Sequence to fold (103 residues):
Amino acid sequence: MSKSERGKNTEDREEEKEGEVVAVTKNGQATIPKRFREKLGIEPPEKVVFRETETGDVVVERVPSPGEMRGFTAEKEPETGRRATEILREKREEDKRKRDGEG
Fold:
């Protein structure tokens, strides 16, 4: 049993396994419990995204900051010398042909 669990009764430990109840303000704000912020590496003023899975579960994920994303694409060598807009245009045309039964 960890130090943080020693002073807790069985009911408290079971609640941690299930989740934590937090209040939602009239403005729709809720505080993310500290243990989840630490687990996800969330620090103010970072952002999170709420998304729903195919099974209906709601998942909270940390959104990487622009600084973390900076250079993400620059680290990779381009796969082609063509412009992205040209590739997207071709892909859209290909998708349209497939949709129209031409491809």
In short: Residues 22-99 form one domain. Residues 84-99 form the longest helix (16 residues).
